[in-house]
Amino acid sequence: MSDAAETESSNRDVRRRVSKQLGRGNTTRAGMWFWEVDRVLLLLAMLLIAIGLVAVAAASPATARRYSDATHIMPAMHYFWRQLMWVCLSVPVLIGVSMLPITLARRLALIGAAFFLLLLALVPILGSEANGARRWIDLGVSDLQPSEFLKPFFIVATAWMLSFRAKDPELPVLFITGGVTAVVAVLLMLQPDFGQTIVFGTVWLILLTISGISALAIGGLIGTAIAGVVAAYLFYGTARTRIDNFLFPTKEAALADRYQVDMAHQTLSAGGLTGAGPGSGQVKFKLPEAHTDYIFSVIGEEFGLISCAVIVLLYAAIVIRVFMKMLDEEDAFRLLAASGLAAQFGVQAMINMAVNTGIAPSKGMTLPFISYGGSSMIALSIGYGLLLAFTRRNPYLKRSPYTGRWSKG
């Protein structure tokens, strides 16, 4: 046999072995995960993470210059290399969590919710202060933001409690979950973190709506939420300052919150439709927190408004795909958990982009998978991993068009 024939035969053997390993007959955990996981959702997450690395690379020189001084000059790509490190840690976490069985994923979320709720309560005592807020616990090598990790665990725990309504509608789960949400809101407002409070409250309302509570109850809760915002304006100084600076800007306010919002809008629109080009943006050097809260504006300046529109579509695609996938889900817990996690992902992205476009006042909230941040990246990876775990489907089961039940095809 000639060398060419031997090489071709060897290649066929390799392809056959790989095909067998990745085939639907592979019953190992990794093999089953490959066929069960929603690969479109996984691909969308990887796209956002890749876009995030490019965006942080674009924003890093501006942030490095802002935080450099006479005694310490930061390398221009300092934040990019750190973000690359966080991505290398976060992606395996995302994949690992997505491989968990449903019962183990639920157990992890319940334990995580209790643990990070305790840490959130300790933030006013142990937390370190930055930019006038006490939201982080200093671990030495990095800062931990308990509220970021609490979000996905809180959603799954709330979904678990609300799922009991499917068995007994008389259970007082609305009041129990409402009480827990109120405790979280109070702890967040002590930091202060009004933006995260809105996220927790909004996702809770979405979960209640999906769980099937009456329209009258939903109307009452929306009215209560509006009353809560009014009360926050009247009695909560941070909320009043942010709202006043946004709606009734004065010269003094323009030097603080309004300056950030205005600069974000200028940076976003500076690149036009197609952008100034990678590394060519100049307005970003005047923008505070270009690598975190206002990275969407940096993308607009360097890569254009078309790129911003693509990012919006990617977030929308994730939320829509999850909700469409859950339309025929019979398990109340999986329905609520997956929908709640997708809603949190979409709400957080929407708030961040609203701030960058000048529609909403500054909130100090990251853009999921794109903004720089260790706590944010790992917490989002855990949440997205849970989302992938709850949306997994067994490829060997098919739903009957007559009974609606799943069975072997």
From TrEMBL:
Give an example GO biological process. Answer: peptidoglycan biosynthetic process
Catalytic activity annotated for this protein? [GlcNAc-(1->4)-Mur2Ac(oyl-L-Ala-gamma-D-Glu-L-Lys-D-Ala-D-Ala)](n)-di-trans,octa-cis-undecaprenyl diphosphate + beta-D-GlcNAc-(1->4)-Mur2Ac(oyl-L-Ala-gamma-D-Glu-L-Lys-D-Ala-D-Ala)-di-trans,octa-cis-undecaprenyl diphosphate = [GlcNAc-(1->4)-Mur2Ac(oyl-L-Ala-gamma-D-Glu-L-Lys-D-Ala-D-Ala)](n+1)-di-trans,octa-cis-undecaprenyl diphosphate + di-trans,octa-cis-undecaprenyl diphosphate + H(+)
Q: Which residues cross the membrane?
A: 40-63, 84-102, 108-128, 172-190, 202-235, 303-323, 335-355, 367-390
Membrane topology of the entry: Multi-pass membrane protein
- Domain of life (superkingdom): Bacteria
Q: Which GO molecular-function terms appear in the entry?
A: lipid-linked peptidoglycan transporter activity; peptidoglycan glycosyltransferase activity
Q: What is its main location?
A: membrane
Q: What class of enzyme is it?
A: transferase
Q: Keywords of this protein's UniProt record, alphabetized?
A: Cell cycle, Cell division, Cell shape, Glycosyltransferase, Membrane, Peptidoglycan synthesis, Transferase, Transmembrane, Transmembrane helix
User: What's one GO-annotated cellular component?
Assistant: cell division site
**What's the EC number here?**
2.4.99.28
Q: Subcellular location, in the record's words?
A: Membrane
Report if keyword Ligase is assigned.
no
InterPro entries xrefs: FtsW/RodA (IPR001182)
One family name in Pfam for this protein: FTSW_RODA_SPOVE
Region: Disordered; residue ranges are: 1-20
The record's comment on protein family reads:
Belongs to the SEDS family. FtsW subfamily.
Looking up PANTHER family in the UniProt record yields: CELL CYCLE PROTEIN, PEPTIDOGLYCAN GLYCOSYLTRANSFERASE FTSW-RELATED
What is this protein called in UniProt? Answer: Probable peptidoglycan glycosyltransferase FtsW
- What is the species listed in this Swiss-Prot or TrEMBL entry? Sphingomonas gei
